[in-house]
Structures are given as structure tokens and as C-alpha cells.
């Protein structure tokens, strides 16, 4: 089976750190923060195989960029597939203003 390299952007790394910090420090749930972080990281690594199983988003601006969205609990991992590479663009809380946050 074909395997893809998964690369995480600096912005997506920052998103992951912010998710962890919010759960651990604001909600005072460090154990849950670790579990959630690990769950998202595992989902991201699963994109090494068959990343195109996730369809391209329907909205025009995201579709033209071939952006895909993987849902992990209350979070969405946004990524693009180029050749043999999966590029993780952002990891955002699903209830946030996604369009606005993606344009940042």
C-alpha cells in the first residue's frame, strides 16, 4: 500500500499546542488534554495511508485549494494532498468560525 509523508505546518503545530494548553490549563484537565492531543496526533498519522479517503471540501474557496477536513471529536484537521505528501494546514475547534480562522 502506498504511504504518504505527513508534514505539519507551524500554524497547525501552534493549534495543537493551544488545544493542549486550553484543556490542561484553562479547563484544568491535564489528563484529558494529553488524551485529546494523542487522539488528534494519531488521526493525523493515519493519513499516511489513503489520505484521499477524505473528500475535498465543498465550499468554493476550500474546494479550489483541494482542502480536506478530518473530524476528530470536536476538532477538525485541515489538510491537502500533493503527490506523495500530506500537508497539515490547521487543527481547529470545529465550532469556531472556520472560514475566518483558515484565512489567518
What brief labels describe this structure?
4 strands, alpha+beta, globular, YaeB-like fold, single chain, 4-stranded mixed β-sheet, 104 residues
User: What is the count of helical runs?
Assistant: 4
Helix content: 40-55%
Mean of pLDDT: 91
Encode the helix/strand succession as letters: EHHHEEEH
CATH topology: YaeB-like fold
**Biggest beta sheet summary:** 4 strands, mixed
Kindly state the number of beta strands: 4
The shape, in one word, is globular
How much strand? Answer: 25-35%
Kindly provide the name of the CATH class: Alpha Beta
Q: Look at the helices and sheets and give the structural class.
A: alpha+beta
Q: Which consecutive residue ranges, at least 5 long each, have pLDDT under 50?
A: none
* Count of the domains: 1
The CATH architecture assignment turns out to be: 2-Layer Sandwich
CATH superfamily: RelE-like
| Spatial arrangement of strands, main beta sheet | 1-4-3-2
Q: Give the C-alpha Rg.
A: 14 Å
N- and C-termini, Cα separation: 35 Å
Description:
It is a single chain. The protein is built from four helices and four strands, in the order βαααβββα. The chain has helices at residues 10-26, 30-45, 60-64, 98-102; strands at 5-8, 68-72, 75-82, 85-93. It has a four-stranded mixed β-sheet. A hairpin with a 2-residue loop joins strand 3 (75-82) and strand 4. Helix 1 (10-26) runs antiparallel to helix 2 (30-45). It starts with a strand and ends with a helix. The relative contact order is 0.21. The model has no long low-confidence stretch (mean pLDDT 91).
Amino acid at each position: 500500500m502506498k504511504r504518504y509523508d505527513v508534514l505539519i505546518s507551524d500554524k497547525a503545530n501552534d493549534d495543537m499546542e493551544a488545544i493542549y494548553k486550553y484543556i490542561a490549563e484553562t479547563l484544568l484537565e491535564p489528563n484529558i488534554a494529553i488524551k485529546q492531543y494523542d487522539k488528534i496526533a494519531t488521526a493525523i498519522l493515519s493519513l499516511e495511508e489513503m489520505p484521499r479517503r477524505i473528500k475535498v471540501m465543498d465550499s468554493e474557496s476550500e474546494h479550489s485549494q483541494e482542502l480536506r477536513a478530518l473530524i476528530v471529536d470536536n476538532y477538525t484537521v485541515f489538510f491537502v494532498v500533493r503527490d506523495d505528501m500530506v500537508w497539515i494546514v490547521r487543527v481547529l475547534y470545529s465550532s469556531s468560525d472556520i472560514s475566518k480562522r483558515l484565512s489567518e
